[in-house]
Amino acid sequence: MLVYKMTKNRVEAGSEKRHETLPNIRRLNRQELGELMAALGEPSYRASQLHRWLYSNQALDFETMSTFGRKLRQRLASEWSIIPATLAGSESEFLDEGSTTPLSTAKFLIRLEDSELVESVLIPSEERMTACISSQVGCPLRCAFCATGQMGFRRNLLASEMTDQVFLLDSEAIKRHGRGLSNIVYMGMGEPLLNLDNVFESIRMLSEADYNFSISEKKITISTVGLPAEMERVARSGLKTKLAISLHSADQEVRERMMPVAIDVTLDRLANAISSYNAMTGQPVTLVYMLLEGINDSPDDARKLARFARRGLCKINLIDYNSIVTLKFKQCCDSSKNMFIQRLLDAGLLVTVRKSQGASINAACGQLATRPAR
Ligand code: SF4
Question: Is 370 a pocket residue for ligand 1 (Cβ < 6 Å)?
Fold first, then answer.
């Protein structure tokens, strides 16, 4: 059974009670805040002020909204509550019993308004401080190697539930490492492109130039299995975010076995979608490829990957598989991995190899699934 450790500064006494009786204003997107203010007979700039109070100042009480008159504050407080997502628990990678590394990856259990749980991961390094955040509770795509996929799909996250993960991890990063977030990846639980309106809204909130938390769109990566129509929407959005595509095999049959979505989105369709994305944005995509022993790590697999990558403007990011007890896959050995890397380099491709972080606390790629945190 989970025991939630609420952080005092984000949840006020009595908020649970208000939650039962009044709707949460953080469920409204920017446009709906505008409609709310219009319905209250307020000028349109009030909606921007309210948005700023909620997501820059992270106000938890309408009384603190000093740019509003008393009547408006009281009216809002009588009809709405303010309930952010909260930290329910955390785990860090351990070196020895009780001692964490200075740059330990940490996983956070986040409790949403309706008590659903998602996980977010803080990945510190010398150069970066990255938050990996979730976009859905569970995931409908059921990739064979992924713990989230085994949970099934429960619901999409609201934009504010994604930004709350960022705000919580930013303050944890400052507390633990003395510096805030430098990068954000939408790579936690769920497929972000299946919740694109809310993902767009959250990115716009996080990159508001003069909000207390503000990050450049260029420091944000959206990760997807590669859904062509939605990739086109990302390209058309005008956002300067990066796009990562979980490829994991450039063999149609193997990819279908690993990722059921590949039955519909064939490699040919995906290659065309990548080329269109390249053409529309002028940007490359990163192909994420998780090496699995005996499944996608042979010389022939490397050759197929190189051929696929050359069909568009692509970089390659190789990652290790992190074992999940209930699943049968295995990490590939160092010699296969080195051979694989060399073949890609020989083909003239830009390859990065990501050292797996967070595997010991099930915080690494493919391992996120909500379960009790210690
Ligand atoms: S890998 Fe991503 S898309 Fe596939 S099931 Fe897991 S969360 Fe969903």
Answer: no
Q: Is 250 in the pocket of ligand 1 (CB under 6 A)?
A: no
What is the rounded CA–CA span in Å between residue 212 and residue 65? 16
Instruction: Give the residue from 58, 79, 100 where a domain finishes.
Output: 79
- Residue 24 is classified by DSSP as B
Domain holding 306, by residue range, is 86-361
Which of the listed residues 61, 79, 97 is the one where a domain comes to its end?
A: 79
Q: How far is the CA of 24 from the centre of ligand 1 (A)?
A: 29
Nearest CA to ligand 1 atom 5: 149
Q: Respond yes or no: is residue 113 known to be catalytic.
A: no
Ligand 1 neighbourhood includes 138 CB (under 6 angstroms): no
Can you tell me the distance from the alpha carbon of 204 to that of 163, in angstroms, rounded to the nearest whole number? 10
Residues 91 and 61 both lie in one domain: no
Local confidence pLDDT in tens for the 374 residues of the chain: 222 233 333 333 334 444 558 999 999 999 999 999 999 999 999 999 999 999 999 999 999 999 999 999 999 999 999 999 999 999 887 655 555 567 789 999 999 999 999 999 999 999 999 999 999 999 999 999 888 888 899 999 999 999 999 999 999 999 999 999 999 999 999 999 999 999 999 999 999 999 999 999 999 999 999 999 999 999 999 999 999 999 999 999 999 999 999 999 999 999 999 999 999 999 999 999 999 999 999 999 999 999 999 999 999 999 988 765 556 788 888 899 999 999 999 999 999 997 666 666 666 556 666 653 33
Structural domains counted in the chain? 2
- Report the 10 Å Cβ neighbour count for 32: 12
φ, ψ of residue 117 to 5 degrees: the values are -125, 140
